[in-house]
Amino acid sequence: MSLKDLAIDRAGSIVEVAGAGAVAQRLLAMGFLPGTSVRVVQVAPFGDPITVEVDGWRVSLRLSEAASLKVRPA
Amino acid sequence: MSTESGAVLAAPAGAVPVAVVGNPNTGKSTLFNALTGARQQVGNYPGVTVERKTGLCRTPGREFLLVDLPGTYSLAASSQDEQVVVDVLSGRLPGEPRPQAVLCVVDATNLRRNLFLVSQVAEAGLPLVIALTMADEAGKRGIRIDAARLSARLGVPVIPCAVPRGQGVAELREALVQVAGRPNAFPPVPWPPAVAEAVREVAAADPGLTPAEAHRHLFDLEPAREPAPAVAAVLGKARQRILDGGLNPVSAEAYLRYRHLDALLEGSVSPADPVRAARPYAVDRFLTHRFWGLLAFCTIMFGVFASIYWVADPIMKGIEWLQGKFQVWAGEGLTSRPMLQALVVDGLINGVGSVVIFLPQILILFFFVALLEDTGYMARAAFLMDKVFSWTGLNGKSFVPMLSSFACAVPAILATRTIEDPKARLSTILVSPLMSCSARLPVYSLMVGAFIAPRFGALWAGAAFFAMHLLGLVVAIPIAFFINRFLLKLRTLPFILEMPPYRLPTLRGVAMKMFSNGKEFVVRAGTVIFAFSILVWALTYFPHPESVGRETEAVARARGLGAKDVERAVGSAYLEQSLMGRFGKSVQPVFAPAGFDWKITVAALAAFPAREMLVATLGIVYATEGEADSSDLRDRLGQERWPDGRPIFTPVVAVALMVFFAFCLQCGSTVAVMAREAGWKWAAFAFAYMTGLAWLGAVAVYQGGSLIWGKGA
């Protein structure tokens, strides 16, 4: 499953960053590495984007970007 | 905008250029302000909408020219912003000397992620100093950092700062003096043999590459700019080498770099206390809530808009009053020399006035922009509004400029600086003037008051006002979509936006943002606006043969008109035979399909430099009072007839004229500011597309209306 499918307040662990483009590399550079734990903290009023907590900081992503982050729910 | 950089850099001879780099939201600007004080210059990098900010930092022995580079998480250049950072660090930007040292701003609450960029920057080999900002905030979250130990491990000075309290600033200046001339000793990433060999291969393909650049070419799979053919030719093989070494070229850099950083950080940093770390985000439960969050958002935005719309108004009225006083005073002193009088009164004073008039709105808007940014709310606004904009290719950050544009496009265009992506910024700049600004109001109120309200009643009049305001917005969003999709070839922007913790803004930071933007507007756009004003004055004044005045006056007196009416008749006669009047008459056929006669055409043309001129110009053309609520002018418009006796002004023509005004870029100040922010080419484009749209809209209304209700309706 991907980060996109994680419900609000649920945590998971990154398994893989899918894709080979700039977006995947930017997420990796920001610390979305396999093994890192992430948690969905907010969902925007229209359902997209979402805010996730990673490594003690928060970043908001569109569902389309969140889909490339494969996670194992905690 | 391309001429700026050379001139700015030439000034402080001998100042050592130092690049300031760091992640967004690290307090980089605050630190930059603290180090440079008011000695700042803001401009653009040649050819791109990336802001270039420099400032002088004085130490007893040396002077540094700090160059504040765009905030970025990585040197992987997938956007123009990041490309500028890479180019400046490598000394590849024309007219920009290579920095001789780098000041890395590192957020103590987020050390590991921040050091990712530092380790990339260190590969450039330049002397390096780390400013550890937010040290107090890190302490509150239970993060303890041993700066001395960290400095020893990283091989570069690490200076903890609490910038708002001035802590660490002097030490930073000193550290810059000390590292000057000494390449940094930041431990390089121990690349596995396969990666090291791949880097060597890329570097060998172009001997001109710096080591940092060779790393970038190898690791960045989707760069903003394609590498040179010689380099591109070896990339496939080099990346294959990484793959053969058992690593994925997509993630190899991040994986190896973070592993290296974790080893370096070992024992220098204690982790945050999760409960205390969550505190600065607590308000988000409310502010990003799907109901309360939207309500708070609407309230905040309404407050911002109301302030620039209504609070600025009395101040602007005051400026106009002052301008009027000056004009009367100067006019009386120069009665003996009519041409000089006209130049000073209608040209110079008017020109200065038309620059100063924007300052209240600019200062008020930037007060709020600074507040929204420095508290961290701007990121939340973008988060809440993203869905509305995402399909056009923009993101929620365009909201504040677009909203501000309903008051005035000039401050709104300046406010697009909060949008990091240069292409998104450009398209927001291009559509912002479509929002119905306050200067369009007098035109609507004249037309609605004269032709809609009397015939259809107050309800329809109100609906017409509302519709005119909605029109710009409804058109702007699809136009943004087309500009992004087909013109800028903007890939849908990834929306990866950090939600910074909520922070208390400092008065100093807010004040500096307000005044630097105000000052910059006066210096950079003001000169162009002033020049426009003089030009337009000349077009409506020349030629100015005295015979015209004498003859008109004689005729008017013979008809028994009063002194005021005689003066108006003379003004009207001069305008008709001025360059502007002649031009208007000759292009009237172009506007005929919209139902405009030559008088409307002249007034519409005279309003190109400033749309608020329309009502005044109509006053001159029809030799009546030039006020929107003047019954004299309204009556006169109603009496105008075509040669065949049909009335010129009908409700349909009134709507056509309003639509023309809603779409047309009739604002020299906006054009000037656009040119400053995005270049003359884009300013010309905006002018052309909006004028075209205005003409099409007006023609569509007139032709459609005539078809349905007949020409005399």
Q: In short, what is this structure?
A:
The complex is a heterodimer of chains A (74) and B (713). Chain A is of the alpha+beta class and 74 residues long.
Plain-language structure description:
The complex is a heterodimer of chains A (74) and B (713). With 74 residues, chain A is α+β, with helices and mostly antiparallel strands. Chain A has one domain: Roll (SH3 type barrels), CATH 2.30.30.90. Chain A has helices spanning 22-29, 63-66, and strands at residues 11-17, 37-43, 50-54, 57-61, 69-73. A five-stranded antiparallel sheet of chain A has the order 4-3-2-1-5. In chain A, a hairpin with a 6-residue loop joins strand 2 and strand 3. The N and C termini of chain A lie close together (12 Å). Chain B starts with a helix and ends with a helix. The longest helix of chain B is centred in the middle third of the chain and has 42 residues, at 292-333. Chain B has helices at residues 4-10, 28-36, 80-90, 111-122, 135-140, 147-154, 169-179, 193-205, 211-219, 229-244, 252-265, 274-278, 284-287, 292-333, 338-356, 359-375, 377-390, 399-404, 409-415, 422-431, 441-456, 458-487, 507-541, 546-558, 563-577, 579-591, 598-606, 613-621, 631-639, 651-663, 668-678, 680-709, and strands at 16-22, 40-44, 51-58, 63-68, 101-107, 128-133, 158-160, 496-498. Chain B folds into four domains: 4-179, Rossmann fold, CATH 3.40.50.300; 193-246, no CATH class; 283-435, no CATH class; 437-480 and 581-713, no CATH class.
